[in-house]
């Protein structure tokens, strides 16, 4: 009798543990009981849908066609390069921007097998279905940088230029020296250090870790002010105000396939090392840029400096006194676009 009770308790305990670590199924947009479809979408070759948003001049009149990839816990509406981009610059340069919800965010279908390569191929298919031409520009902010690195690896022949704005650099990229990644790793706030460990070594526990109440988890997901620089705290109200009308849409299909999946992909060991990439524009027919604040609390500046050192064909712009949210500073959109598209010297 005692043995049967113990077995029953063990089974119930295992069932409870399984339910605790198993993420709920996503609420697919357009499915019964799921969120409504409000955005234009394309159907990808594998059957998934990708929601997008266009702005700027009409694409058939544009001189510069840019695919923008949003960051962590954001969506197609969060186009940081356009947040302070003036109408005059858009019109005078002929800029067209299309942004899209990365898989699992907003109204784009989740993609459980998502990788930097699949993101790059999503970008290419979006550009082709929207008829952007044989070459186009890509720009990614923060976690959206993983898609830009993927584009530089897998579809460099389609690019007219690439911009990375405060891109997340993976501490498990093989090209980083151990002393540099070790310092960046242990300089993290304790909650983020444990979140990174779980997402990298035990990705199947990511959902449980980010939803349990026993220990603090990701300060990034919680938008904790502790990780913000002085400038970030000044600019945060602008970011919050811009997201207010659509914030509920960002994670509406479920937190696991949006922010948790983002953590897993951004933190795991990728199938390639960005620092092994070759110059995609050896004849100066395009350019690759990185903009990085030297007081960024999310992306260590020392890692970005090392990337620029290892890849001398990257044009590196370090912003003194700036944090992660510097694109929301007055006039920053105009400066970034003029540097990126016209080759003007970037001056703060």
UniProtKB/TrEMBL annotation:
Coiled coil start-end: none
Domain of life, source organism: Eukaryota
Record's keyword terms, sorted: Signal
InterPro entries: AB_hydrolase_1, AB_hydrolase_fold
Positions of the AB hydrolase-1 domain: 66-329
The UniProt record lists the keyword Repeat: no
MF (Gene Ontology): hydrolase activity
Signal peptide as annotated in the record: 1-20
Protein name: AB hydrolase-1 domain-containing protein
Originating organism: Solanum stoloniferum
């Amino acid at each position: 009798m005692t043995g049967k009770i113990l077995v029953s308790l063990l089974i119930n305990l295992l069932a409870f543990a399984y339910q605790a670590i198993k993420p709920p199924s996503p609420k697919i947009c357009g499915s019964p009981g799921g969120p409504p479809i409000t955005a234009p979408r394309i159907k990808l070759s594998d059957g998934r849908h990708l929601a997008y948003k266009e702005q700027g001049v009409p694409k058939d009149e544009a001189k510069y066609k840019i695919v923008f990839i949003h960051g962590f816990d954001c969506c197609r509406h969060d186009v940081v390069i356009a947040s302070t981009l003036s109408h005059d610059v858009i019109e005078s340069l002929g800029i067209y921007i299309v942004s899209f919800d990365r898989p699992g965010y907003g109204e784009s279908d989740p993609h459980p097998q998502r990788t930097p390569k699949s993101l790059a191929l999503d970008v290419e298919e979006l550009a082709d279905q929207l008829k952007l031409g044989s070459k186009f520009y890509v720009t990614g902010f923060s976690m959206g940088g993983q898609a830009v690195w993927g584009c530089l690896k897998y579809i460099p022949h389609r690019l007219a230029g690439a911009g990375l704005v405060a891109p997340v650099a993976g501490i498990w990229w093989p090209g980083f020296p151990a002393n540099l990644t070790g310092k960046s790793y242990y300089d993290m706030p304790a909650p983020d250090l444990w979140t990174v460990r779980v997402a990298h070594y035990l990705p199947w526990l990511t959902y449980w870790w980010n939803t349990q109440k026993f220990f603090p988890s990701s300060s990034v997901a919680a938008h904790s002010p502790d990780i913000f620089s002085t400038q970030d705290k000044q600019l945060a109200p602008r970011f919050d105000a811009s997201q207010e009308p659509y914030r509920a849409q960002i994670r509406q299909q479920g937190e696991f396939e949006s922010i948790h999946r983002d953590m897993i992909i951004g933190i795991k060991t990728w199938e390639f090392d960005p620092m092994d990439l070759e110059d995609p524009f050896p004849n100066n027919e395009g350019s690759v840029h990185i903009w990085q604040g030297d007081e960024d609390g999310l992306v260590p500046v020392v890692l970005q400096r090392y990337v620029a050192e290892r890849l001398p064909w990257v044009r590196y712009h370090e912003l003194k006194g700036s944090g992660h949210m510097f694109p929301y500073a007055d006039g920053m959109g105009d400066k970034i676009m003029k540097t990126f598209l016209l080759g003007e010297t970037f001056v703060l």
